[in-house]
Amino acid sequence: MLDVEPLLAATGSMPPCGVDLEYDADFLELEALASAKPERQFQEEADEPPWHDIMARVSALLGRSKDLRLAITYTRAAAHDSGLRGFHAGLRILTGMLDRYWDDLYPPLDAEDDNSTALRVNALAALADPYTPFDDHVTLLHDLRAAQVCQVPGERLSVRDILIGLGKLTATAGDRTVTLSLVQGVLAEAVKQDREALADALSLPQTVEQLANLMSARFGATDAPSLTVMMSVAQSVAGACRAVVADQPSTPASGVAMNGVASVQQTGFVAMPSPDRLDSLVKASSQKHGNSQLATRDDAIAMLDAVCTFLEKTEPTNPAPLLIRRARALMGKDFIAIMQDLAPDSLAQIHQIVGKEPE
User: Given a cut of 70, is residue 56 above it in pLDDT?
Assistant: First the structure.
């Protein structure tokens, strides 16, 4: 793994976070370099930004200022320049900044608006799930998929290759043919040559989870960028790598009935406990972990996060966390906002029924 501590160290001038680079010439030049649009479907191929040069520039600027915009640019550039380990390093820098320097971090909190975090949320917009597949190019998801996972003589694998090989991403024009056997073979050869070759891929889901939880704590569950799609990609890649690193241990999810819930193997689905049984399970869990009953919306959101974390660790192929996180992101929205998110095509009919015109 790349060492990010030097980049997270307090600035030498005006510590711990240095100066605001909003109008700094070097910062503006960096943003211009990194703003080149990547190739999009049905468009001519565009030149890639000079990622190696951008890496050097942003690393130098991080010594002058602890700015979330710099961390996003570093993550994007590192994914192209250093592969998945670079992307992983960028997420760790973001996590470190939010954890260590919250009070003094750039962009600053808005003191005139009750310390509003809006500027910081906007700075992290590239982290969030894309609204449509065509929005991928403006999010870090595009850079994550382009990141190289490993390379062996005569072959290399990117995150995109692995997703295509696993059948989790549809190949488009220009993509090479990737099969599951090819993915498994290259990963196995990489591990054979270097046992630590897949270390970043294996630990990426944990880092994404840490960042997601920290952003929820800092910004609030409804304002924090959703990392649902990024987590899904990270888990898929980690699962493919884990399969070639060691044999998978059997888990209770393989079909053993637990706590009165029917076995997945026996029924094909997980049965919902009765209301009385569900209440007893919640009370037992509260007693076991020393937690009180749910009293607020934030308590409920924290419980949903805990459920997702448990399932992601014990049943990494279970799709439930994706749906739970999706529902969690909607909890703070009104009906119109929810329909805008889930079914935007239905808004015209809704506005006609309720008499509210689209904004």
Answer: yes
